[in-house]
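Collaborator request, handled under Task 6.
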Amino acid sequence: MHFLLSALSIVLIDLLLAGDNALVIALAVRSLAPRERRLGIIGGASGAVLLRVCLTFVASELLTIRYLQIAGGLFVLWIAVKVLIDASEPADSVAAPRRMWQAIWYIVVADITMSVDNILAIAGASHGNFWLIFFGLAVSIPFVVLSSNLLSRLMDRWPVLVLMGSGILGKVGGDMVLSDRYVVTLWHPTDTARWLADAVLAMGLITYGWWRMGKARSVA
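Structure tokens returned to the collaborator:
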């Protein structure tokens, strides 16, 4: 019973905190063809989960690494910019295999850097039990894969969702940078400062994407 309750706790933690990760995956694979998109989602999500299992055993050390959240936040912002650039370019401008491996790389790195809190929560709920960690994360894979597929299809139908998704990633990236141990120690950002930074980054990315898409339509 204790094992089952711990496993259920890990599954719930992972599902509750998986929304941002699913959004990153959906945006990263949006420019791929349907077959490559499925392979990219499955490959990226599986690779990220395997790394998370390994990192959970050193979870307490993750928060002591300076600049980890800064690097992760900047990487998430770069993904948002790259998605907006790809969305305004012809679909065949980059070879499909290269796009797929690039998407998998984005998914794995972004997922790991975005999931520090998730990893810490799972480490606490599992009490160091490898099989609990593996089971909880493995069960979450179908949820992430299905939600990422759904989001990417919705973005195909309504391109404005790409702008909204990039804006959300702007907020996520800003939160990560301002949550870094070094930034908190040095600047002690207030809630107001966090809110303003999130708003500026989100609106900046949405405006940039709107401009690029408008420019692409005028050229076409």
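The cover message to the collaborator said: "The longest helix spans residues 191-219. The chain has one domain: 2-219. Please let us know whether this matches your experimental observations."
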